[in-house]
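Teaching note: in complex prediction, the entire set of molecules is handled at once rather than each chain in isolation. The prompt given to students was simply: 'Predict the structure of this complex.' The entities are:
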Amino acid sequence: MTKVWRAFIFRWWEVTVIFDLIKARLVYYFKSPLFYIAVIVSLASGIYGGLYCSYFKDEVGAVISCSADDMWMLTAIWAVIVLVAMCAGREFSDGTIRNKIAVGHTKANIFISEICVASIITFIMYLLDIVPTAIGGWYFISEFPTSSAVKWFVNIFLAFELMSIFAVVITYLLTKRAVAVVGAFAIHFVLYIIVGFTDGYYYSIGEPRYITYTDTIICEDGTIKEEENEYENGYYIEGFSKTLIQIGHIANPISGLEDAIHFGCISDKTKVEDYVLKQKTNRKRDLDIDVIKMLAYCIATSCAGAYLFGKKDLK
Amino acid sequence: MDYVLKTNGLCKYYKDFKALNGLTMNVPKGSIYGFVGRNGAGKTTLIRLVCGLQLPTSGEFELYGVKNSDRAISKSRRRMGAVVETPSIYLGMTAVDNLRQQYRILGMPSFDGIDEILKLVGLENTGKKKAKNFSLGMRQRLGIAIALCGSPDLLLLDEPINGLDPQGIIEIRELILKLNRERKITVIISSHILDELSKLATHYGFIDNGSIVREMSAEELEAACRKCMRVTVSSTAVLTKVLDDMGLEYRVIDDTNADIYAKPNITQLSMALMKDGCEVLNIEEHDESLESFYISLVGGDGHF
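The expected output is the structure of the full assembly:
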């Protein structure tokens, strides 16, 4: 019983020391000029996203996609990557991480506290980005079923969070700020390019080789007639390519971000039911699976990072 | 005797390179332990292991009686402060902010004592000046100030006087002596500047190729480095008898060599030895500095 009690007290002590580390790191971030630059960038991205959505609000029949231009989100994510990698990397370039280890903080606690702080900072940047965008794009977000809207917000936050965790892990393992920033960016770009390529194909898996569309034709005498025509499906794949695309898309940790972006695409804002039906039959977006997947990636990357950092020799 | 730090067969290998190779040492409580060795001997590696920056390949050490493999070593390290290689300071913050950060890291309930620490290290007037604008000496002192947060009773200083001017060296030396005498802080100071260490250390650990060659107190070192006459004779047994008769202090090294801690009359000594059939082969004046003592311990190329 004494052993159990002592183990409990030790665990509680470890939790309280993590809070000390988190507090110290937050103060560091709030004193860093880079934090305020990231705030400005995230807010600017959010305002841009909101204005972009508002601009297309009254265009009936046009392709209205708040998320088709994903720069409103990506810029903020880049700001988070740079901020987190530079601030985390400073611990190694200044050597201040030694001050923590020398007074008894374990590497695991230091790493966990850095992840926690990065998550808090990421959430702040996410709010600065998503709130103005959501205000400007509320006309289409409000059309989503509630559960879909929640998943949409969560997916985007998890994309921010995952990139922030990647930045922390890479920085802590490489211990060099500049290399870590480049590395985190490189990972983000590669994943994003891959998902941009696989996305269209992935959601077309199962579609037939030829798809029938109803074309609206205006005749010479002014009458409108509808005609059914068969077109070859540009996204049709089979065989090894199909397997590769499936694996590439499912395994990609930020495919959820792409899903969230395209979940916002509608062709006619008045026909949400048609849109939802089309999403289910053609470009179904598995937002709930994406949430679970990205959450799993966040946890797995954090655990792997903590383990590897614990084994690393520091100077 | 109470020991703050005890190592037992500590080894650290980096692939094929043995940075520490069975290092065993004991640091007495309340001492200023001078850790002496050439570049690459393993001084910094040992400090990194004790601080927890790296894990030993094999062997163990005890800090305040707690083994390094015990989880409670974290609590033992709370009693410690360290400056490893370069001072670990937030360059974008002032001296006060740096200490406040360390207080937060330690989970201290208030910022009381910061002014006192800054006054102790001579940085009380830095005001809003950021650490990146400090001189090297000021940064070293700030590093020591950060290490003093939380009132440690053990301080590990890795070559704290590297790169300092003479005034800076004097200031650091006086600070270390003050901390040891007034606050009873045990100090482990690694250096390859032997003359400076000789003004500070109460105990020495000589390290070479990753292991301790010799541990001794300052008194023992002084005795070993005393000015003397080294005589080489055919039999030290006869020599000792003659020296006893002459009332001279001496130390026998081996069967043919002895050190005489006096200036005897060479003619009288030689004649007395000849009477008993002992030949005098060589007489030379011997004045061992700390440097030459160290060279005699480790041999050859010093690389200081």
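Point out the following to students. Chain B touches chain A through 39 residues (CB under 8 Å). Residues 226-287 of chain B form a domain with the Alpha-Beta Plaits fold (CATH 3.30.70.980).
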